[in-house]
Specification:
About 30% of the residues lie in helices and about 30% in strands. It is of the alpha+beta class. It has one domain: Penicillin V Acylase, Chain A.
């Protein structure tokens, strides 16, 4: 078992200042050192043009561009490099897992991916210059793996495939754009129809009304359906699915079979987080191991997260934070059953063979 952590990042202020603040924190970090080495082995299969990326971001969340400018100035990098690392536009993404379950008052999500990509940053951001405040784990600093905003909109996403990518945003930036600008599931679904998608993902959105929408997206189309459980295959755009769906179907069936017996969000959390529950995954070397389990409760405006399996979650009162009460803890501790290094806390979390 490997002890890990996520740093708790709290900020109130403008997007530019938030970007500058984050840039200062990561400037000499292991994350950037490891990422630099990762790029030496895994050459980018994309190009980033500054004006094109700016024109793509501005219609959906213009202040996010200010955050990128703050990162640029703090890191003293050219904008092209900032966009390559943190812009979330036209980037590549490899396979992953993920399972999501919603109920009357909760969204529970397993984030399944590779430890060498996990940044270990859990962020609270309350902007003073527009856009909604949000809580959730970040990816590529500006993006969000999952999260909830001040309106009680929660979101998570599940990977489908990366065949035939298009010009567009990757999943974590799309998660951020939705949280930044959408107040409810209908606004989120409408925005997901307009956003250009780099790869094929399902986005699961849930709000305080108890309504869940699953938005199936690819560079070639978007479909919206209603359901309470989602794994790694499309139900509507079946022609987009991968060939190997056995594990995705199995995890979905486990959640569907248990659904009617779940009496609370806590029981749903245990179903996804318990390593013997049938949903949690230990396939870390295959890019599909469960690194965290998140929970969002829009009616109570509370959020939970556990790093690793069989753990009690750290619980946060987002409503109290929005009212000005800071989180006292600086880190969220966890434990994961792997010896693979994590990009934010271990040397040599790159793709070199040693």
């Amino acid at each position: 078992m490997k002890k890990i952590y996520s740093d708790i990042i709290q900020f109130r202020g403008t997007h530019y200042d938030f970007g500058y603040f984050q840039g200062g924190k990561i400037k000499d970090s292991l994350t950037l050192k490891n990422r630099e080495n990762q790029w030496k082995v895994r050459k980018p299969r994309f190009m980033v043009q500054e004006e094109e990326a700016k024109e793509a971001i501005l219609p959906f969340a213009p202040r996010v561009w200010d955050e990128l400018l703050g990162l640029r100035d703090a890191l003293e990098w050219p904008m092209e490099k900032v966009l390559q690392e943190f812009g979330g536009y036209r980037l590549d993404y490899v396979k992953s897992g993920c399972s999501i379950l919603t109920g009357e008052d909760y969204l529970i999500r397993n984030y399944d991916y590779h430890p060498k990509t996990y940044e270990g940053r859990y962020t609270f951001f309350q902007p003073s210059d527009g856009g909604y405040a949000m809580i959730g784990p970040s990816q590529r600093v500006t993006g969000r793996m999952d999260g909830m905003n001040e309106k009680g909109l929660a979101i998570g996403y599940n990977f489908m495939h990366r065949k035939n990518p298009g010009d567009g945003f990757i999943c974590c930036m799309i998660g951020r754009l939705i949280l930044e600008s959408s107040a409810n599931v209908d606004e989120a679904a409408a925005m997901l129809k307009e956003i250009p998608h780099r790869h094929s993902f399902s986005y699961i959105v849930f709000d305080g009304s108890g309504k869940t929408l699953i938005v199936e997206t690819s560079p070639r189309g978007v479909e919206v359906r209603s359901a309470n459980a989602c794994t790694n295959h499309f139900e509507m755009m079946k022609h987009e699915n991968r060939n190997h769906l056995t594990d995705s179907n199995r995890r979905l069936q486990v959640m569907q079979d248990q659904y009617d017996s779940l009496e609370s969000g806590r029981e749903a959390f245990r179903l996804l987080n318990d390593s013997n529950g049938g949903v949690f995954s230990k396939l870390y070397s295959s890019w599909a191991g469960t690194i965290h389990t998140s929970a969002y409760f829009p009616r109570e405006m509370k959020a939970w997260i556990a790093l690793g399996g069989d753990r009690e979650p750290a619980e946060f009162d987002f409503a109290a934070w929005l009212a000005g009460k800071d989180i006292e803890a600086e880190r969220i501790p966890g434990e994961v059953d792997t010896d693979i290094p994590f990009v934010h806390m271990d040397e040599n979390a790159d793709w070199f063979k040693r």
